[in-house]
Specification:
Length: 161
Amino acid sequence: MKLIDKKRRIENKTNYLKRRRLLESKNPRIIIRKTNKYIIFQYVETKIAQDNVKFMLTSKALLNYGWPKEKEGSLKSLGAAYLAGMLFGKLIKNEKPAIIDTGLIRNTKGSKIHAGIKGIVESGVKLSHNTAMFPEEKRISSENIKEFFEKVKTKIIKGDK
């Protein structure tokens, strides 16, 4: 019997085995995706294979917290992923514990995905994670964004806009 190739698997958009395991766990998921411009965070609950997005945040929200408009191209950087993760962690702080879903993004040490997870964890959300995979602090607040990184971070911690 020949298996039918699924369209999204052929297009490298969905790993059905990984998705099935995530759905069978019946836990909410924190989905982290990176695009050409932004980092996207979603808190998703699944009921009978239908995803319900409860919270969503992109790194574009950092513009409201003091990220300079002329540095809008760096909203996909390591520092932006960390700060957006902190902001997202504040949104979902009182929700049920969730598991991380990175999709088809490679799971490499010090990546933008792990910078976002570090931000979520440091905002007080309990996640199962490996701290050895987190990027170093000096890489997160690199030289080209250092002048406004701390200002945005304190605004997020205080809850100011």
